[in-house]
Records
---
Amino acid sequence: MHKKDIGLAVLVLTVGAIVTLVNPRFISPVNLANTANLIGLFGLFSIAEAFVIVTAGIELSIGSVIALLGVIFIDLIASHGVPWPVAFAIVLVLSVVIGLLHGWLITRLKLQPFVVTLCGLLIYRGIARFYTRDGTAGFTFGTDLPMLEYLFVGRTAGVPHSVMAFAVFAVLAWFLLHRTVFGRHLLAVGKNEEAARYCGINTKRVIVTAYVLCAFLTGVSAIFFAMYTKSVQPSAHGNFYELYAIAAAVLGGFSLRGGEGSIVGVVLGVVLLQVLQNLVNLLGIPSSLNFAVMGAVILVGVIADTQFHAYRQRRHHQATRSALAEVSRIPSANG
Amino acid sequence: MTAAARISLDLIGITKFYPSAVALNQVSLGIRGGEVVGLIGENGAGKSTLMKVLGGTIAPDEGEIVIDGETASHLTPAEALARGIAFVHQELNPFFNLDVAGNVLLGREPRSRRFGFIDHAAMARRVKPLLDMLGARFQPSTQASELSLADQQLMEIAKALSTNVRLLILDEPTSSLTLAETQRLLDVVRRLRADGVAILFITHRLAEVEAVGDRVVGLRDGRNAGELQSGNINRDAMVRLMIGRDVTQFYTPPHVRQGPVVLRTRNLRTEAYPQAPVDIEVRGGEILGLAGLVGAGRTELARAIFGIDPVQGGRVEMNDKPVASGSVPAAIAAGICLVPEDRKGEGLFLDFSLSENVVMPNLSAIATAGFVDRGAEMEIADRSRSRLSIRAPRLDRAVSELSGGNQQKVVLAKWLGLDPRLIILDEPTRGIDVGAKAEVYRLMRDLAEGGAAVLMISSDMEEVIGVSTRVAVMRRGAIAGILSRADLSEEAILSLAVG
């Protein structure tokens, strides 16, 4: 675990402790399970974003993709009678296609990731609204399809399945980024794409894969969200989710310049953001201040991190300096 | 030059601690207007730190600075500028989106009287005389992006002169210049000296110090290593000053043992010079030096062979088998590797650790089912460290903490694990110290004697002649001629290069 991760963990625990002191309902099983469910839902696409950010890219269309794929998933089942496993597969295939498209535009046509995915944000949201004629794609089949319901919104031993999915993907992502050759290549491409090319790394393929991974995880998350909300209002569903994801990744130590970050960090970042949301509710802070609280905490966290880093550098400097002064005095006194 | 009084500057007992080392230990240095002082020392000897003290960007922990008779504990950048201290840094960072006048007067642009807009005519009037004095063949209105490296250097000097400079500090000013351009720069140095400017000349090219230096100050391990007065400035004395011993057999070509042809290009046409097909052969066991002026297409040829750039035609063969063009992985699979010219931009991941850098091109070899074996990684990194005598206390620290010479060894170490058949080195010793140079040469020799083919691009004549078994000279993208070891001389190479 990185030192940054430990700092973040301490912050999460501190905020949690404070909320518990003010309102003990925070640690009630019901509240914990609900918060955990949200952590699972938001965590899936935050990990997705992290894979793109580590290549020095950005994915801004996550919220719109969640809306579009959610609408399609529901419509396929509710209006077209498609069996849900088939609808599930179609959504995942579509998500991979979106990832491939973004990766292709970025690596082959050399467009900036910000521009490509900003256009994606606008386009997918527009299509989702047009597709449903701006109506809400509703659900009545929750009880008709108990298996689907159980898989995506059920709980095992009180633990929401979304959290389990998040845990599984987080562990996979950790191994992928921190232990595999592909993970090294991701970090290398993000840190210095030119040097990566000189090492024989197929940088274009690495970048495209990152966008495909991101879109795939977003697709999985879209189904969880559709099943969670039971109705998808295409103009509002998933709004700003990409910003949650970016915030979680930045909190988790991912640099927007690419090449660094840890999966443990982004997981803790997601937890912190959801605990903050919960804090706003439990402490009776007007919910209109929700974003302001989140923004302030992220800003304070990032400032504290840089200041703490600078402080440690200075202390390290002073320690070695006095040690070196001892050593270097002796010969120079004679000479 | 204005009639500003000549500078008198003394650094006395300057000491500076860095987090992991004593960068400067009781260093003293004096310089007066009208003299050229060569500052030499291996990388990490403290030259850059001393420069930063002069420029006011770092404050020394101990010692004092006596400038024009006034004593201070440190300078601020503004004071340094006001005192007439100016720099031309090794790494030129011109603003390519501005013209020459805009670069020279950046931040000091004259404003028009009426609206306060930038007065371009006045800028040109101020910059033109400076360019004339330097003998520049470009105009104040020339875009910086159109200048060659040598002209960019002149532009930087013009910038320094525009501030009424009294002490000009040149850091490795000739490392990317051709011979003729270097001569021109040395002439400028002599002219400025005649005008009463003090010049501190930092370089690894000892011949240049010999040519213009009035005095040489050596630094070693952050301390004064001694001084040479004008009569005693010669190569051997300077090398002794820098490394504290004689370098025996500094340049030794490998024992020639003609192996089979390893690399052959057939009508290879690069993007830079599509009309100039290149046919070249490199045999196992030889070091083929690739000489030529900057811009002759040597780097472009190397990039084409290594698959970084797509080729316009022709092909590359390794051991008589064609190599897919435009693909680095294919080139590596065929046994080719390239040590690029731009160490920091293309050769290394500066924030990554030594071990991560060393195994990067070879990760799949130490992976099982896609998982990196970190024990093997450390083992390989440790072996490379001892084989190349890389001075790094820890394998898990960022390579940005290492000196230039040691960084270059890390770039070389990356490739050794792949057991290359052809190793291309592009300016492999640029900006690295004598000790590290000797290591690089030894390694090239070892590789050649082990049967590999070595292709070395270099603009350092001494080096090309010293270590090559044969030399190919390029001119405007084509091979102008090939010289065998017996025919090697500076004149022979130059006449082919200039044509």
---
Amino acid sequence: MNKKEKFQRLLSENEFVFLDGAMGTMLQAKGLETGGVPELLNLEKPEWLTEIHKAYADAGSQIVYANTFGANRYKLAETGKSVSEIIPAAIANAKKCCGESTLVALDIGPIGQLLEPTGSLTFEEAYDIFKEQIEAGKDADLIVFETMTDLYELKAAVLAAKENSDLPVICTMTFEQNMRTFTGCSVSAMALTLEGLGVDAVGVNCSLGPRELEPVIAELSKWTDLPIVVKPNAGLPDPVTNTYDVTPEEFAESAANLVKYGVKLVGGCCGTTPDFIRAVVNRLNGMKYAKQDVKLEAAVCTPAKTVEINQPRIIGERINPTGKKLFKEALKRGDIDYILGQAIEQINAGADILDVNVGLPDIDEKEMMVKTVKALQGVTDLPLQLDSTRPDVLEAALRVYNGKPIVNSVNGEEGSLEAILPLVKKYGAAVVGLTLDEGGIPKTADGRFAIAERILARAEKIGIPKRDVFIDCLTLTASAEQAAVMETVNALHRVKTELGLKTVLGVSNISFGLPNRELVNCNFLQMALTNGLDLPIINPNAALMTGAVRAYKLLANIDENASEFIAAYADSNMTTSVSGSAASAPAQKKGAMDLPSAIANGLKAEGAKITEELLKTHDTMDIVDNMLIPALDKAGAEFEQGKIFLPQLIMAAGVAQAAFEVIKAHMLKSGGETVSKGKVVLATVKGDIHDIGKNIVKVLLENYGFEVIDLGRDVPPETVLEAAVKYEVKLVGLSALMTTTLGAMEDTIKLLHEKNVPCKIVVGGAVLTADYAEKIGADFYAKDAKETVDIAKRVYGN
Amino acid sequence: MAGLEKINRSEAFRYMGVSGVPDENLSAAADECEVRLLSAAAPKFCWTYAEISGFAADGITLKGHRLTLRGKDIAEHLSGCFGVVLLCATLGNGTDKLLRTVQAEDMAKALVCDAMASAAVEQVCDSAEEEIKKRFTDKFMTWRFSPGYGDFPLDTQKNFLAAANAEKLIGLCVSSGGILTPTKSVTAVIGISETPVEAKKRGCGSCKMREKCLFRKTGGHCGE
């Protein structure tokens, strides 16, 4: 019998499976110092461990957790001991005192550092850290990930377990009273993501007492049909006495109350002792496991947002370079901010899910996809639909995606089914199935329906649940194939009603080559919605399209009391746009507004509008040199004189930026080169994650016509070197906020000098001084963003 | 815990280097940022009390703790104290996400938001201090002294967080570059004394920004 079977047998032969209680509490009672490394005791005091494990086994624990919670390379760094020394010893200590019937878990807690984007630890590094622990713990009977608060970290952990071991996996996360973890993960997102990744049991531990955890467990029971685990604290610790306030009897009573939600595995966390476990075992004696009858529905998620596909949901199509010059340019430059801007615009316009496609022949699509997915999940909570024709790109995106995404797409071709479906299964995604195959797109509804059936059968065969298969019956252009329109609509209807699957459809293609496209799109969208379309892929910024979906939901009695509709249109504006800054800008001054006064007053939308008008009568360089730059200079001078302050200077820059965007778009359209007064590489140095200062510098530089290659934050010296050489820049700007990261700044400068890169280096940041800048070999010290611009002008001689 | 209803604007404007009455644009941006920040932030704090077991040459040791408080400035700060409270506070991960989002939208707003978040986390510390005071009613407390002040080393953070169990209790970590994450967070030592603490101003002497501080140049200084 392998370990997975052994675990399953334990579950099937017992009404409940009892876990152990706290380890830290027991060790502190024996004399462990607060802040000490408890895992060292596996080597220093093995007898303490065997005593504790035995006490739990005697109290009735059927699974004991080895003392390995923090045995990772980060937490052990200063102890002089390695993961491969500590973990096997810890497992041996546990095995020593337990009989065959007690299983020993490799217990793995959070690494102790926050992952990107808030922290600097990458997803890949986290995976590597967990992998080392899992390999060292191969003698355990199962793996437990507990006290997790970051779904992303947990995903790295589960992948590391699944790819490097065959042991069963239990995951428990720690929730607060607001039903979220510290990093904002919801119960539903945990359940959807972990169930997709194929874990064996899921639940909660730590943080709260068993009574306070009830709403969390109740919610979890609605989202999973896996066995539910609960390991609560004995209440909360008192900061002065360090004691907990729940007694074993109260604990057992509250635990018994959770049984009705389908709890299968029960134990205790901080503050609990063998007495607590004994009390729980006694209290649950005679009770029955209340397996929940859950009907799981289609849903996708990010940690903070779960989107149930129980009504039409808009998939925004704008993150896609097809037919978009500015987008293509941005991809070639690696300009993530541009893509983020596209995302934010769609979110504010009403998108529920964002499609992400960054395929372009002359870029590294895989690298760009990973970068884009990571950046997007740093700023938005909307689930993503990962869109590529290449399986390797999809897999890379699926790995780093935080939550449960949609894969776009598989189709009925054998090669596609074989390449895509296993990825969907492994990473627990939903998938769009296109109704086409080796024979192309069938002309008839029947033909497309048959392919949908086949895709579903193949998906189910490898264990992808039916609810995760969404079918796209494919829109053909009405102007070319008028008769095909109703075939699409009819196929969609049959897939929805006969197969019971969710449906997807890209809508905008329908009107290609026709006048008044929006009218055609809108009507087609309504036809599709009425026939059962769940996921329209549209441009949410087109107010009529988003409005059509909202109106449908209102009329179909989905939008109860029309609340969503009213919320969207009560102010009579069809859409709100952040880029217009409409929400915060003061009442627009009508009449004699010109570009310089728009800049002086911080009016972004006005600035863009005026620029558009100006372009009809003025040359672009005339606008830049005679209006934009002088207005910015004026703002800069006022800033230096203390007449205006940094936020106002940046507001002025924001308007200029909006004007520049208009100019750039105009130049691309007319086939001209974009304005560039020279390229500057900017980076926040290795180890530093505060990049607001660097970003302010970027805005100002761009406004003066410089092309900024923004390397982001936490940038290693080698990356700066590479970019400086590749883009042949004359100026590199480095930023550091903390005294602890000034060393990295010095290293970066040294490397650029060693390699004789013919560029000047300007440095800035809160703790820097001119003296220090000189000492570390920088060419210039800039005390603020304005001064950086002056330096750039000098370096480039303009 | 640690409710935050309103953000101390005058403090936030001070961080932005704004003096005088902020103009209409700036006030409007502050209005928007305040609403968004209050909804994104999940303010939390935790603290633990420890008795001082010795003032040694290499630092102050705490009973039952592995943490040592090194540096002459912290020693001076705690002179006359018998115990310390180790305080940790954070606005949570959601605030970092908001700051990233606003940076992608509009840098001027991001600047305002960032400063408001800095003001907000100080307010969280203030409310923590109120709670702590209630547990030491007949004692005296020093002001908050954080790693990085004077010669109290920043690399204290990792052990500091472990001592206060801050990762488990409020989700606070430190990056390998020594930066607290979530970024809008504070750690601080408060000394507890039987006798009135000398009313030392929380001043510029121990501040690394003293040479560059715009506020100081105009004659101001931090603290009450």
---
Amino acid sequence: MSRYLSLVPLFLLLALAAYFAIGLSTDSRTVKSVLIDKPLPAFDLPKFGADGETFGSESLKGRVSLLNVFASWCITCRVEHPVLVKLTQEKRVAIYGLAWKDKPEELKAWLEELGNPYLAIADDAKGRTAIDLGVTGAPETYVIDKKGRIRFKQVGAIDDYVWRETIEPLVAHLEAEP
Amino acid sequence: MNAFGRTNPLWLLLCVLLFSSLAHAVEPDEKLADPALEARARALTAELRCVVCQNQSVDDSDAPLAKDIRVLVRERIMAGDTDEEVIDYIVARYGRFVLLNPPLSGDTVLLWFGPGILLVVGLALAYLYVRRLNRAPVAPQPLSPAEEDAVKRIIEDPRA
């Protein structure tokens, strides 16, 4: 009996090591969204570049789309942007933009310089819709299904790898849903 | 001569070191006019994790998103929300991850009681170990008649 008892610390150590191994290999900086599988929070914001018009969550129903939270002040968005431009050029998926706490003139200059991959841009100048969406930083991209529900949230830039491995298969899967 | 003319600079340094922790990120224009409501807002945001810097509270953080949430919390308070409603509002958007003081629920039981359980298990093991060390050694048994005979034979004739 006492021989087995002396092994207890070893097993405790192994259990602790396994626990740490799991903890260290998951990225705790990425906050998992609580809104997965829930309807996109309702918003109705000024549509960028269209005086007086609004663009809101209702417009994202009926087709699979990406809602990309970005800003001209966001450095990583600049890295991500060419990927989005290419996706739109190749007509892979509908991409909408949410300009987070941006200034219209800076946003305009940014889009003129880098191109505009968005079907429409909601101008969230106060950042209130971003909070409703649980945005923790930019860029973040929500994959919205045909019923207007959030099905996936990409924290950080979409690059070729993320598109090919994660988002493209998911979009294809969602397209097949009724 | 100004008011600090005779003050030892070390005293000033001491004051700075002692009271600098009282400085928070809250900017004057964010504050509510009513001190009681402002105190509620401060207490609530001190319990909320800033999702940008993560190990600071919303009350402490200089991140723009933390500022937005401070303003939002004050708006909810002005709109008549209770403390619970304000917290629920934020949790509905960012999840319970933002609670620096997580509530006791099914999946946080281990978080709350795990360290205590480990402590008790550790103390129990230590107790068992120490008790075994202190147990009186077993009294020596007398030799059996056969052993007595063997010893006697060896003593009488060591070469045998």
